[in-house]
Every structure is written in structure tokens, then in C-alpha cells.
Specification:
With 412 residues, the chain is mainly α. It has two domains: 202 residues, Hypothetical protein af1432 (Orthogonal Bundle); 175 residues, Orthogonal Bundle (Hypothetical protein af1432), CATH 1.10.3210. The protein is 61% helix and 2% strand. The chain has a two-stranded antiparallel ribbon. The chain is elongated, with a radius of gyration of 23 Å. The structure holds fe (ii) ion (3 copies).
Length: 412
């Protein structure tokens, strides 16, 4: 994959869908924030480029929040002492991702009071953009109890009044004035309906040109999301990154090269993106899962498949990533695909995933020694679950793969 034409607008929407999964109770928080911020920017006559950048920043503003627990705190009060952590984390993630790095500063200060922003050495435009995110974010927190109901029209004046009482201290007066003006129209609030929201967001991207992203940039986008997923639990630190490295090396051992090799790596990075929806209480649970919890856990690979279909529509990435829990006997999930229809790349990612997970400690067991892992994998081959050739390649270079699994090898 030297480069690929990517519809960045559509990709950010899809990534925002993935992030939305963290919300559970009030999904689409990011999209509502984006849309409201866009309307306020439009009211203020901001130029097209700035409106679009606020739209994307809105969709991604909480990318530093990986834990459902953390998200709940953020949505329960107007200000919260621990809010800065997710701003710093989000900015750090975005900075490392070239196509989106220009949004890092907006995200960095999106819970900083206006009166504090004025004291920081930032440009006035940046202050306004980041404060607009803060404002839209807090409007959303106040409107959540009335979502999808006309009651929002009754509550709207109270929401405006509440936020205006923070003029000049939490929020810039000119932003509040534009919001108050817009808030008088019922349309502003009713457009938050989930169906309308998706339609409007798509529409705004109609004239946005596709961008050509090189493989390195695509990998950084994938890495951004793998970091968010892996941050859900201390047990899965760097899991996706390690799986991607192992899968890439295994694929290379099989002679896979060029674009296919790059896609294996990206699929490895994103294989668990659907896990954003799974509560960390389940991921971190020390004992065995109840059937309800298992069902919640198991849906992640299907969610991965669907999310990646939107971003990487014309590639093998959705399939290679989404099928990582299938097995040769057709007893995996979510498609029950039989072994003979599983592409080699899928089988490689499955083996890499299991191998890395066994090498890493989990809440219910310690990380296993290499010899025990090999025994276990060979048993799975005998049982007809895992691909014997893939496991054999791994065993032939076991020490090297074990190092990759444990993160001893630096990642370039
Ligand atoms: Fe936030
Ligand atoms: Fe937020
Ligand atoms: Fe998984």
C-alpha cells in the first residue's frame, strides 16, 4: 500500500463512531458536539476551513477517553478536576498522527476555562476554537437528559441561562452570544436527532476532496486508534501494536509483501477497535465471564468489521481484522467462517493475537512462558482450531516472536 485515496471526512466520522462506543449511555456525543460547534462557527462567520477543522475536532475531542468510567465523570458535571488528563492524552495521540496533528492544540485545551486561556501564550483564534469545543461539549452534557424528546425545547432556555452565567469565566462572551442567538431556533435542538445528525454530517463532507495518504500516515491513523483501545486496560497495553508487529513478521515469513504486508499490519493494529464498546469492568474482570458479559465481549469483532468497512472500504483490512476470532472448525465468531475460506492473512492475525495475549498477563492469569505457549498453540493445532503452518512458522522463530510479543523490540 504505497498510498491510498482516503475520504478523510468519512474516515473521521467512522472513527468518531468507534469513539462513540465508549459512551454507551449517550452515544453520538462527539458528533453532536461537532455539529453544534460547526453551527456556532457558521453563525460567527468563520471561514470554511476553520469550520471544518472544528467539525473534526468536535468528533475527535474525547479521543483521550478510553474508559467508560472516565466518560461518565465527564458527562455528569460542568467541570471536573480530572478532566485535564484526557485532554493531554488526546492531544498526545493526535500529535503523533500526521493527518490529524493540526487538531492537537484544540483538543489539548478543550476543558480549560476562558479566563485561563487568556493567560496562556496562544493565538486568539486557537483560544476561540478550543473554547468553542468546551462550550459545545457542555451544551451537550446539559441536553443529554432531554435527547430525542421535544422536552428539549422546554429545557433550552434554562440551558442557555445556565451557560451564560459563566460568560467570561468558563466561556468566551462572543461564543455564548452566538450560541444564545442560535438556541432561539427550535431547529438547532431538533437537528440533534441521531438520524438527522448523520445526514447533516455526511452532507457537510459532500464537497470535501479525498486526500491521498501514504502508508506511513495511514499506519499512524491506525496506531492512534489502537492506542485508544489498548488504553482501556493496563493488561492490554500495546496489545494491538504487538499483534500488528508479529502478524507483519509472520506474513513476511510466508512471502507476503508490498501492499498486502502493509494491510496485514494495519489490520493487526485495528483488530480490536470494536472493543471500545466493551466496558473495562468486563475486560479487567479477574474471574470467568457470565454469559451476558461474554456476549458483550464477543460482539467486538463484528463491530471491528463494520467500523473498518467504512474507513477502508476497498481493501482487505476489514476482513482480515474482523475475522480474528474465527477458527478453522467454523466455531469462532462472528461469521462462523470455515477454515478453508479463511484467508492466510486472517489465520496469521488469529495466531498472532492468541500468541501475544498468552505472553501478556491478564487479570485471571500471569503471562505464560514461551514453552508453555508453544504447547498450548500446538494443542490448538491438533484440535483443528489453529492453522498448523502458521504456528510452525512462529515456532521456527519462537524467541524472536516472543520478544515481539513482550515488547522487547523497539517499535520504529
Ligand atoms: Fe472532554
Ligand atoms: Fe466530551
Ligand atoms: Fe479480539
Amino acid at each position: 500500500m504505497d498510498s491510498q485515496h482516503i475520504d478523510l471526512h468519512r474516515s473521521v466520522i467512522s472513527l468518531s463512531c468507534a469513539l462513540d462506543l465508549v459512551g454507551i449511555d449517550e452515544v453520538k456525543h462527539g458528533k453532536r458536539v461537532a455539529m453544534m460547534a460547526w453551527h456556532i462557527a457558521d453563525k460567527l462567520g468563520w471561514p470554511e476551513a476553520e469550520r471544518l477543522s472544528i467539525l473534526y475536532a468536535g468528533m475527535l475531542h474525547d479521543c483521550g477517553v478510553a474508559k467508560i468510567r472516565e466518560h461518565r465523570q465527564l458527562t455528569e458535571s460542568l467541570e471536573w478536576d480530572g478532566a485535564e488528563a484526557h485532554c493531554l492524552r488526546g492531544a498526545e495521540y493526535l500529535e503523533a498522527c500526521p493527518p490529524l496533528a493540526y487538531l492537537a492544540d484544540e483538543i489539548r485545551y478543550h476543558h480549560t476555562r476562558w479566563e485561563e486561556l487568556l493567560l496562556l501564550p496562544l493565538s486568539q483564534r486557537l483560544r476561540l476554537r478550543t473554547n468553542l469545543l468546551f462550550l459545545a461539549d457542555r451544551i451537550d452534557v446539559l441536553q443529554v437528559p432531554y435527547l430525542n424528546s421535544e422536552q428539549i425545547l422546554v429545557a433550552a432556555p434554562r440551558i442557555v441561562e445556565c451557560l451564560q452565567s459563566y460568560s467570561g469565566c468558563l466561556f468566551a462572551p462572543e461564543l455564548l452570544a452566538a450560541f444564545a442567538e442560535l438556541a432561539r431556533s427550535q431547529a438547532f435542538w431538533l437537528a440533534m436527532d441521531p438520524d438527522y445528525l448523520d445526514e447533516d454530517l455526511r452532507e457537510l463532507g459532500r464537497d470535501v476532496a479525498e486526500v491521498e495518504l501514504g502508508y506511513a500516515a495511514l499506519r499512524e491513523m491506525a496506531r492512534l486508534f489502537s492506542r485508544i483501545v489498548d488504553a482501556k486496560s493496563p493488561y492490554t497495553e500495546q496489545h494491538s501494536e504487538r499483534v500488528a508487529q508479529i502478524a507483519r513478521c509472520l506474513a513476511a515469513d510466508f512471502g507476503i509483501a508490498g501492499s498486502d504486508l502493509d494491510q496485514v499490519e494495519i489490520a493487526g493494529l485495528l483488530h480490536d477497535i470494536g472493543k471500545l464498546r466493551v466496558s473495562e469492568d468486563i475486560i479487567d474482570k479477574p474471574g470467568s465471564l457470565t454469559s451476558d458479559e461474554r456476549a458483550c465481549m464477543q460482539r467486538h469483532s463484528y463491530d471491528t468489521f463494520r467500523i473498518l468497512q467504512r474507513v477502508f472500504a476497498d481493501s482487505k483490512i476489514p476482513e482480515w481484522a474482523g475475522l480474528h476470532h474465527e477458527n478453522l472448525r467454523g466455531e469462532g465468531y462472528p461469521f462462523k467462517t470455515l477454515g478453508k475460506s479463511l484467508e492466510l492473512e486472517c489465520r496469521i492475525i488469529s495466531v498472532a493475537d492468541i500468541f501475544q495475549a498468552l505472553a501478556q498477563s491478564r487479570p485471571y492469569r500471569e503471562g505464560m512462558h514461551l514453552a508453555d505457549i508453544i504447547d498450548h498453540l500446538q494443542q490448538l493445532v491438533e484440535d483443528g482450531v489453529l492453522d498448523g503452518e502458521v504456528v510452525a512458522k512462529l515456532v521456527a522463530n519462537a524467541d524472536r516472536y516472543y520478544e515481539l510479543a513482550q515488547g522487547y523490540c523497539p517499535i520504529d
